[in-house]
Amino acid sequence: MAETLFGIRTLNAIAARGLERLPSARYQVGDALAQPDAWLVRSADLHTLEIPASVKAIARAGAGTNNIPVAALTARGVPVFNAPGANANAVKELVLAGLLLAARNLCPAWAFVRELELSGAALDTAVEAGKKRFVGFELPGRTLGVLGLGAIGVEVANAALALGMRSRGFDPAITVQRAWQLSSSVEQALSIEHLFGGAEFLSVHVPLVEATRGLVNATRLRLLKPGAVLLNFARAEIVVEADVLAALDSGQLAAYVCDFPSEAIKNHPKVVALPHLGASTVEAEENCATLVIETLKDYLENGNIRHSVNFPEAQLPRIPGTFRLLIVNANVPNMVGQISTALAEAGLNIADLLNRSRGEIAYTMIDVEAPLPTPVLDKIRGIVGVLSLRAL
Predict the structure, then answer these.
(1) pLDDT, position 64
(2) What angle do CA 33, 297, 313 make, to 5 degrees?
(3) Angle between helix 335-345 and 374-381 (nearest 10)
(4) d(CA 169, CA 391)
(5) Is 155 a catalytic residue?
(6) Strand duo 38-41 + 57-60: pairing
(7) For 106, phi and psi rounded to 5 degrees?
(8) pLDDT (tens digit, 9 = 90+) per residue, 33-92?
(9) Is 147 left (phi over 0), alpha (psi -120 to 50) or beta?
(10) CA 203/CA 223 separation, integer angstroms
(11) At residue 276, does pLDDT exceed 70?
């Protein structure tokens, strides 16, 4: 029997190394597919687009999913996948660069030299006279606070130790996996206020959700050591921009290094605003594309869920000779019972079953020993609370 052909629409340029994981014998990939099985995106804003009913999954070749209407897709029974940790090294290296840019005043010093329209002895004299304006400081012994200990935050916290810094982290939702990766020498902050208290550098590594919007504000900035440096390579809205500008003007902050230029901050003399370079390396783009495409393939071909921002982790090994049923439904009592009854009434024996839930939805994977007739699928699809159904 011929293998199923899946259609994947790309809404941005995706690294070729990732796309190579989609064999043409089984996948049709392009930017103009009308009824694709999945969308593959990077920065495209999906909030303003109509997502066809044919779409069974959205995959983002990156970590953040603010450009994707996750709640609306969840209500449709559509998982959203991302690539957590695939760009962690790239962002970590940029944070380290930011530490050095701020500590040694490199950007204003470079600008000073470039603006000197002199030559010979006059240039040498001006350089020597001007360098006093850019005296910096060294990093060993300085305290770095890391807000958020996901894949990136853990790498930043560990790297700071290697630079001789004192590293302190806070994340009330740190996973077991990340805790294992975190050096035992990273100090545990007991609260956000404890993290900010006396820190000389503060680096932000939390996702943008309603609870983190404006998390870095005037009250917390006042807890930092006077003359501290704030680094934000997460999302612009996590900091209150007006409060940061006030802290820069008062001297509470010596510098703000970020990846999010705006009209208000980009020309401030104490701001280094980069053009969203966090994951802009060849390696990070390839890693993100490869990870999310492998995840997407496993979902389309086997129904397994990994690295989803809205669905539970669910992986069930395939049993040769069985037929797989995948159901997304409201997380309410007796759903599995109703589904099992419908299969039993059709004389279909269940070979294996996995049910997982996350918040208001549940995901059920069922392997049966015979093909699934259309009337049975229609009956299950008609159960109140079933959001989506697929038969493999």
Answers:
(1) 85
(2) 125
(3) 160
(4) 45
(5) no
(6) parallel
(7) -70, -40
(8) 999 999 999 999 999 999 999 999 999 999 889 999 999 999 999 999 999 999 999 999
(9) beta
(10) 14
(11) yes
Amino acid residing at 178: R
8 A C-beta contact, residue 386 and residue 380: yes
Calculate Rg over the CA atoms of the chain: 26
- Measured in degrees and rounded to the nearest 5, phi and psi for residue 110 equal -65, -45
Mean pLDDT of 123-143: 96
Active site residue 263: yes
**Does the structure show a pLDDT above 90 at 136?**
yes
pLDDT tens digits along 11-20: 999 999 999 9
How many angstroms separate the CA atoms of 13 and 389, rounded?
Answer: 30
In the chain, alpha helices (H): 16-19, 70-75, 88-103, 106-114, 120-130, 151-162, 176-181, 192-196, 218-221, 241-250, 282-302, 335-345, 374-381
Instruction: Walk across the sheet containing 187-188 and list its strands.
Output: 187-188, 166-170, 143-147, 201-204, 228-232, 253-258, 271-273
Active site residue 356: no
Pairing of strands 361-368, 350-358: antiparallel
What does the pLDDT read at residue 63? Answer: 86
> Which is catalytic among the residues 276, 306, 318, 356?
276
**Cβ neighbours around 63 below 10 Å, total:** 24
Q: Are strands 323-330 and 386-391 parallel, antiparallel or unpaired?
A: antiparallel
Choice among 142, 178, 220, 235 that is catalytic: 235
Please report where in the chains the tokens 């200990």 appear, as a residue: 149
Q: What domains does the chain contain, in order, with CATH numbers?
A: 1-86+279-311 (3.40.50.720), 88-99+136-273 (3.40.50.720), 312-392 (3.30.70.260)
Distance (Å, whole) CA 363 – CA 372: 18
What value does the mean pLDDT of the chain take?
A: 96
State yes or no: pLDDT of 1 exceeds 60: no
pLDDT, tens digit, for every residue of 188-207? 999 999 999 999 999 999 99
Give the contacts of 96 (CB within 8 A, at least 6 positions apart).
Answer: 156, 159, 163
| Strand, helix or coil for residue 188 | strand
Q: What is the pLDDT of residues 91-108, one digit of tens each?
A: 999 999 999 999 999 999
Annotated catalytic residue, options 3, 115, 117, 263: 263
Position 224, amino acid: L
